[in-house]
UniProtKB/TrEMBL annotation:
It comes from Akanthomyces lecanii RCEF 1005. Keywords: Aminopeptidase, Hydrolase, Protease. The keyword Hydrolase applies. One of its GO terms (cellular component) is cytosol. One of its GO terms (molecular function) is metalloaminopeptidase activity. Gene3D superfamilies: Creatinase/methionine aminopeptidase superfamily (3.90.230.10). Residues 3-100 form the Peptidase M24 domain. Signal peptide: none annotated. Transmembrane segments: none annotated. This is Methionine aminopeptidase 1.
Length: 101
């Protein structure tokens, strides 16, 4: 990797029959943080995630998480990638519930 790159790291682990994964986006070196477009996009994604997590509660329809993210991203001149989803943790790779974002 080079100074200025952005790393998207997706880690999957197994414990017994369960599989979980977690993804994070990171700056590689100071040069990556110096590019305004990098900062804008990554920080906006983090803000969208925080906003969606604030509404988490039992019984909330899953679509509401994606709507919070979509509304916030759209207001900032971005769009969401509708072919990728958040998902549950189970014995499968990407189990339901799927959370469009």
């Amino acid at each position: 990797m080079l100074n200025g790159d952005i790393l998207s790291l997706d880690i999957s682990i197994h414990q017994g029959v369960y599989l979980a994964d977690l993804k994070g986006t990171y700056y590689v070196g100071d040069k990556a943080k110096a590019a305004p477009e990098n900062l804008r996009l990554i920080e906006m994604m983090r803000q969208c995630l925080k906003a969606a997590m604030k509404i988490v509660r039992p019984g909330l329809p899953i679509r509401e998480f994606g709507e919070v993210i979509k509304k916030m991203a759209t207001a900032r001149g971005c769009s969401v990638v509708s072919t990728w989803c958040g998902h549950g943790i189970n014995t499968n790779s990407h189990p339901t519930p799927w959370i469009p974002h």
